[in-house]
């Protein structure tokens, strides 16, 4: 059945690409209320595809926000009760398109140029999710069944931190039980270096607000009489990080940060991630980051602090001499295993309160949080993915810890693990670092799409025998 599934995938590449393009035309932007119907349309598209291919149960289920899709195919034939069960996770929502003026192609009208497919969601995550679904379709068309039991969970709120998926998982633990979880929502280093992620960083996203006068004031009349909230805010932000070493200065921030084992450090150092690559990918004139650690570690296994935006006052054209009533900053911290987002938040809040002058009011709020995760890369389920990559792409994978955050990973491990054994989470992906995910002109490298389908076909066959 393996060979027949591979043949089907290779003979139907254009059909799979066309199906992906149809999905990409749906502007399923989860963070914008005006696109709620589009998020639902994207769910309906995926559900229709799953039903047509042969999944025995496919349901669109409601949450307090956007819907989720649950599908399953369980082989109940005599002699097949010991087949392992794989839970597949993906998402069908996408990021907003702004700044729209920087798109050189319509974000929701897929365009193929050379080997690249341009559209919002092409790489994150519709393209990668569709590759997994196309692998399932290939098996159904090859033999009318799958080699293992499969459950599929697709959501429409990943880009807004999955607020309603977490309670859904907790309420459906028995239904979602599986022997392993497969997630395809990652980048490769390049087409010759597939990646297995054996961990992701956590995240603490905060909003810091400084309030001064009751309303905006004329700086000529009141300058020197009150503290400007912007002046105070930038001083507070500057105290959060050492200007030379780039160490985070929040008290106790590093207390629970674990250092790498030598074997782990050697594993990460195998990746061709160096300063030259960093300069090429970022376009920066020079690299920054925490002193004392190579780039490959700074972007994956070390905690960071970033300011994402500052709002308030006057930013229009021309001049307006105003002392704003308030100033707000968005600040996040990428966290590593053992750093608890709640504990870090309390340290941040206490530190800012201790250095904030009494002339203003300070409010520090949590916008979002996620725990870091580290996975046993030696587990048979993960090693099966390494084998599948070799078959699908022709290259051995690199093992990395991801710099981004996937809150769903920690949630699934907590909810679906059994006593004394965490459920294995296999994190693979077919994107590339220059796919411009979350940015204008997002793309997906089409050969990776085809090789990704074949990789998942191989993974299901290998997983069957674990």
Number of spatially distinct domains = 2
Strand order of the largest sheet: 1-2-6-3-7-17
Q: Write out the CATH superfamily name of the largest domain.
A: Zn peptidases
Q: How many helices does DSSP assign?
A: 15
Task: Give the assembly state of these chains.
Answer: single chain
What structural category characterises the helix and strand content?
A: alpha+beta
Task: Provide the CATH topology of the largest domain.
Answer: Aminopeptidase
Approximate shape: globular
How many extended strands?
18
Calculate Rg over CA atoms.
Answer: 24 Å
Tell me the layout of helices and strands.
Elements: H1 2-11, H2 13-24, H3 36-53, E1 57-61, E2 68-73, E3 85-91, E4 111-113, E5 116-118, H4 126-143, E6 149-155, H5 165-171, H6 173-176, E7 180-184, E8 195-200, E9 202-211, E10 217-218, H7 219-222, H8 229-238, H9 262-269, H10 275-282, H11 295-298, E11 304-311, E12 322-323, E13 326-335, H12 341-355, E14 361-370, E15 373-374, H13 380-393, E16 398-402, H14 407-416, E17 425-428, E18 443-445, H15 446-464
